[in-house]
Design a protein that fits this description.
Helix content is 30%, strand content 8%. The chain has 170 residues and is of the alpha+beta class. The chain has two domains: 111 residues, Alpha-Beta Complex (Ferredoxin Thioredoxin Reductase), CATH 3.90.460.10; 47 residues, Rubrerythrin, domain 2 (Single Sheet), CATH 2.20.28. Helix 1 packs across helix 2.
C-alpha cells in the first residue's frame, strides 16, 4: 500500500489502534467494519496533514480551525447521533447495538447547523450563578464535561478531546 498525502499505512494502523483503545475505555465503539473504519482513520490523518487538525472525513472543512471546531473528531454531534441513529455522521463511532449487529447502520442526517448558527459563532449565554466560585468553569464541547480551574485541561478526561475543544462556560 502506498503513502497518500504523506500518510503511511503504519501511521493509520497506529492511530486506528489508539482510537479503538480510547473509544472502548470511554464507553464508545469503533465501527466493526475494519476496512471502512481504517479508511476513515486514514482520512483523519490526511485532514490533519492538510489542516493541522482531525476534521471529520465526511464533512467539508474550511481550513479555519475556529470555524471547524464543531467537526474536529470526535465532533460535537457524535453523542446525539450515536444515541439517536446508532452511529455518528461518518459512522466511525457506533452504538453497542450496531456493534453487535442488533441494529443496522442507517443514513444519518446532518445535524450541523449552517454557518452563523453554530456554537462558535454565538456569544456565550451562560451566566455565573450567584455564589459561584471565582475561578472559570470550562465545558468540553464534545461530551459536556465541566471543570473549574484557571485553564481548560490539555485533554478531556472523558472523551479525550483536546484543549481547544473546551469553551468557557462561566
Amino acid at each position: 500500500m502506498s503513502e497518500e498525502y504523506g500518510v503511511s499505512p503504519a501511521q493509520v494502523d497506529a492511530l486506528y489502534d489508539r482510537l479503538d483503545r480510547e473509544a472502548e475505555a470511554a464507553g464508545y465503539h469503533l465501527n466493526p467494519d475494519r476496512e471502512f473504519t481504517w479508511e476513515l482513520v486514514k482520512s483523519l490523518l490526511i485532514n490533519e496533514a492538510r489542516y493541522g487538525y482531525w476534521a471529520c472525513p465526511c464533512r467539508l472543512a474550511t481550513g479555519d480551525k475556529q470555524q471547524d471546531l464543531d467537526i474536529i473528531c470526535p465532533c460535537d454531534y457524535r453523542d446525539p447521533d450515536v444515541v439517536e441513529w446508532g452511529a455518528c455522521y461518518c459512522a466511525l463511532y457506533v452504538s453497542e447495538d450496531v456493534l453487535h449487529g442488533d441494529k443496522p447502520l442507517e443514513s444519518i442526517p446532518e445535524r450541523r447547523p449552517p454557518v452563523g448558527q453554530r456554537a462558535q459563532d454565538q456569544p456565550s449565554v451562560h451566566e455565573r450563578p450567584t455564589g459561584a466560585p471565582s475561578i472559570p468553569v470550562w465545558r468540553c464541547r464534545v461530551c459536556g464535561y465541566l471543570c473549574a480551574r484557571d485553564e481548560p485541561p490539555g485533554v478531556c478526561p472523558i472523551c479525550k478531546a483536546k484543549r481547544d475543544r473546551f469553551e468557557r462556560f462561566w
